[in-house]
Amino acid sequence: MALKISLKPHERMIIGGAVITNGHTRSDFIIENNAPILRQKDIMREQDANSPCKRIYMVIQLMYVDEKNLTTYHNLYWKLVRSLIKAAPSVLGLTDQISEHLLNSQYYQALKLTRRLIQYEEEAIEHVRKATGSLQSYRQSNHVRP
Questions:
Q1: Distance between CA 76 and CA 39 in Å, rounded?
Q2: pLDDT in tens, 30-49
Q3: Could you tell me if 71 and 114 lie in one domain?
Q4: Model confidence at 54: pLDDT above 60
Q5: Are 2 and 31 in contact (CB under 8 A)?
Q6: In terms of domains, do 70 and 138 share one?
Q7: Cα–Cα dist 106/126, whole Å
Q8: DSSP assignment of 87-137
Q9: Of 3, 23, 99, 143, whose CB is crowded by the most CB atoms within 10 A?
Q10: First to last CA, the chain
């Protein structure tokens, strides 16, 4: 069954490893065979992979669009996941689900779950920021030195 994709003006997507940028007007594409496809909202640029979970996303994205180097990407993935689990054991259940998808070559499904992992990471960082901010406010109001 064919897949119809409509791109907004100047929107990008990856089809089978090729980056496509739409022109000035809306365009429709019909994909008639199986190929890895990522819309612009799902594409992570290398410079944006600036946290452990975003690096995991980036590696899975590479697995999805570059099957020639799967062994390299899988090795890097397992190294990143081991490090993440060591730092935050609470992500084990989610990383297990992601890994299961990868072992079954379901890369897009793994990417979708990894977005949840990134959200979890961002929430944890925000929680720490708020706690740190509260501590700093307490110190300042009570004239306590760090």
A1: 24
A2: 888 888 899 899 999 999 99
A3: yes
A4: yes
A5: yes
A6: yes
A7: 31
A8: H-GGGHHHHHHHHHHHHTT-HHHHHHHHHHHHHHHHHHHHHHHHHHHHHHH
A9: 99
A10: 63
Q: Is the dihedral of CA 146, 126, 109, 67 positive or negative?
A: negative
* Claim to verify: residue 30 and residue 87 sit in the same structural domain: no
User: Do 105 and 141 fall within a single domain?
Assistant: yes
One-letter identity of residue 12? R
Long-range contacts of 102-106 (CB under 8 A, 24+ apart): 102/60, 102/63, 102/74, 102/77
pLDDT of residue 133: 64
Closest CA to 7 of 43, 34, 46: 43
Question: Which residues are paired to 3 by β-bridges?
Answer: 31
For residues 65 and 81, state if they share a domain: yes
Report, as an integer, the average pLDDT of 15-21: 87
The burial of 124, by beta-carbon neighbours within 10 Å (0-12 exposed, 13-18 middle, 19 or more buried), is given as: middle
- Domain span at residue 126? 44-146
- The alpha carbon torsion through 130, 136, 138, 142 (nearest 10 deg) reads -170
Helix 52-65 vs helix 107-141: crossing angle, to nearest 10:
170
